[in-house]
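Q: I have 495 residues here and want to know how they pack in 3D. Can you give me a structure?
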Amino acid sequence: MAANAFMRLIQFIAVTMATLATVFLAIGLEQEKRKPNFIVILCDNLGYGDIEPFGSKIHRTPNLNRMAKEGRKFTHFYVTAGVCTPSRASIMTGCYAQRVQMHLNSRDGWVLRPVSPFGLHPNEITLAEVLKEQGYATTIIGKWHLGDQPEFLPTRQGFDSYFGIPYSDDMTKATGERIGSRMDGNKWPPLPLMEDEKVIEAPVDRNGLTKRYTEVAMQWIKQHQEKPFFLYFPQAMPGSTSKPFTSPAFRDKSKNGPWGDSIEELDWSTGQILDKLVELGIDKNTLVVWTSDNGTPMARDMSSPSRGNNKPLFGRGYTTAEGAFRVPTIMWWPGNIPAGTTCSELSTTMDMLPTFAGLAGGQVPQDRKIDGHDVRPLILDEPNAQTPYEVFYYYQRDHLQAIRSGPWKLFLPTGKGPRHPHVVKGKEAKPILFNVVKDIGSQEDVSEQYPEVVKRLMALAEPARADLGDLGKAGKGQRAIGKVYDPKPQTLPNK
């Protein structure tokens, strides 16, 4: 009897082990088949040289160091504008901001202001909508800045939920009162914190934004771990003020005042997200992209790091200099992206839409022009992968100022347009050519040594002008900006 019982026990254990093996194999296969999650962490006004993986010697960013060690740095990753609204429009649409006319308007100037009648047109197909079509849960936690009217809010643009501020952290009631009727500043409300389409706090405590956003993001990831998800996480910091806001745990802890404190808290936030993915066992199925919406404007004294650093690149944010358009970028996807690697091929924020669409099993919209490209070969470090861009355009609002093709960047003669960052006042505005691969600081004008390159790039300007416009002249490929005719401020209910 004892022998028979023992044999039955052995058989039971064997059957159980085989069953578990089958279950685990099925789970593994299901994980392999499952569409990848996407997280885009977008900092605000953070410079190329502000983090350790890109050369900072003053800010401590251990989590970004880890991300770079386990992932892939992109040293020629570009935004499409040196300022936030048009830059963010390109992420959402996969297009140059000029194509969707989010580059400027007569009342708002550089970026959308509070109570603006303008916003991203509801007919545009956003990255969130493309992924939602593939069964993704979608959310944005952070700064939107593509229109604060109900018609333009994230929940009308493909996001299931929204938690954050609708525009820049410096666009407060006090700021509006200072500028008065200019840009309708006298209508600006206290800075609102929104949940979906309702204001839940006003004014929001900006000191706690990074911490609160991070906590909400981690909770959302936990709640949505069982299905493919897209988390768009545009942080409010370092932000648009000269003294960024931080929670008490990080205040006065860095070697660079409020700016450094803010960056070190952003690094902490990133570490929390990565750790949560590992804890939940979904890290190998999640592509995380960490970048900035544009370079930092820097302090008046450009040798001071007190308002960020774009070095070794040339120039300030808000311009068409490399320091405005080329941003620090790290991508992390354990088991898929080769660890500790660097990509020096040109890619852009416009590429997120077509690339994520391809990874999700979908496709880009077929009824309109999309300027971005599927750059999976660059992300995954496939052999001989090269940039898909023959040409990349640098616009200052509606003014085409520069062109890049291969290693060459040509600043065009300014003509009747505003001066570009390499024109010295009183000097003739002639073509200026840099090899931005060899000459990372854009120090040596080589236009006279390479006249054939100048001629070729000058010719490449004409298709852009015809398609995307230049100096007030519309382009044939432009689409309409969204507009309402009676904008209202976003305020607390019954206010």
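Q: Anything worth noting?
A: The first strand starts at residue 37 and ends at 44. The first helix runs from residue 2 to 33.
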